[in-house]
Amino acid sequence: LEKMTDLVAVWEVALSDGVHKIEFEHGTTSGKRVVYVDGKEEIRKEWMFKLVGKETFTVGAAKTKATINIDAVSGFAYEYTLEINGKSLKKYMENRSKTTNTWILSLGGTDYRVVLEKDTMDVWCNGEKMETAGEFVEDGTETHFSVGDHSCCIKAVSSGKRKEGIIHTLIVGDKEIPEAVE
User: Fold this and answer.
1) What tens digit of pLDDT does each residue of 61-82 get?
2) What dihedral angle (degrees, nearest 10) is formed by the CA atoms of 172, 174, 176, 182?
3) Which residue from 11, 125, 129 is spatially nearest to 62, judged by alpha carbons?
4) What is the CATH architecture assignment of 7-91?
5) What is the pTM of this model?
6) Residue ranges per domain, the chain?
7) Which of 7, 38, 151, 169 has the most neighbouring CB atoms within 10 Å?
8) Count of CB atoms situated within 10 Å of the CB of 147
């Protein structure tokens, strides 16, 4: 494997199926552009005469659209920005924190990352969409699923405040798991 001498940018993108690493090589003399997602080469272009522009590709199980923008700042300096679904990475992650809940937990020595997509009520665990069973309970809803031999439940309860909306809580066995901040 050739050494990544032209590596100019690395981003970590948290999606429902996991945290993905995006690496970008830009040869400013050769015009070479290489995009890696999780260490796998997605795009390779040699000898590009135009040094600015964009490269678009997909990330993760849901094939989320990602674009790297290459802009000249001054002289031979370049700026690289990553957009996810047409939004800057920062904006995308801010919006994502409103539409998903994420919990990180350890069960029997294995680490798990559980993600709830609030709009669809889909539950993901370590990159896989889980089989779930939902039920209405007295104070809201419960979404049941299993991780290994552990029964898990995401409780959705109204906060009673319009601004806060619904509070989602992950319970594994009889323990409440604190939400992770990504």
Assistant:
1) 999 999 999 999 887 789 999 9
2) -10
3) 129
4) Beta Barrel (2.40)
5) 0.84
6) 7-91, 96-177
7) 169
8) 18
